[in-house]
Amino acid sequence: MRTSAAILHALALILTDCSVLKNITVGRLRIVTNKRTYEFPELGTDAVQDDKLRAELRVINDAFWVRLCTMGELGFAEAYMFGDVVCEDLISMFLVSTLGSPLLLILAN
Fold it and tell me: Is the pTM of the predicted complex or chain greater than 0.85?
C-alpha cells in the first residue's frame, strides 16, 4: 500500500511533467522540491523569450500539490500563506506563469 507521501510525490511528478509547464515561452520557472529540481522549459530550449525573467518556487510541504490541484490560484495562495511553498519574487513567478504560458491561468481556474 502506498503511503500518502508517495502519493503526493507521484502527484508532483504528474503536475511537473505536464505539457503546459513544458511549453513556457517567456522566462523560466524552477520548482525545487526535497527530491528533485524541475526547470521549465527544460534547459537548452531555444524557444524561450526574455531569458532574464526567472522565477523559483521551493516546495516545503507536499500539501502544496494538493492545494494547487484542488483549488488552483486560491490553493497556491493558501499554500504560500501557510508556508507550504516559498517564492522570493512573486511578481516574476506571476509574470512567467501569465506571459510564459497563458494556459496555466486556464488550468488554475
Answer: no
71: helix, strand or coil: helix
Cell of 108: 488554475
Q: Report domain extents, the chain.
A: 4-104
Instruction: Please compute Rg for the chain using Cα positions.
Output: 13
Mean pLDDT per block of 10 residues along the chain (109 residues) reads 62 62 80 88 65 90 86 88 96 82 52
Mark residue 50 as left, alpha or beta (left: phi above 0; alpha: psi -120 to 50; beta: remaining).
left
Taking CB atoms within 8 Å and a gap of at least 24, the contacts of 93-98 are 93/29, 93/55, 93/56, 93/57, 95/26, 95/27, 95/53, 95/55, 96/24, 96/26, 96/27, 96/28, 96/29, 96/53, 96/54, 96/55, 97/29, 97/55
Angstrom distance (rounded) from CA 40 to CA 20: 10
Could you tell me if 41 and 48 are in contact, meaning their C-beta atoms sit under 8 angstroms apart? Answer: yes
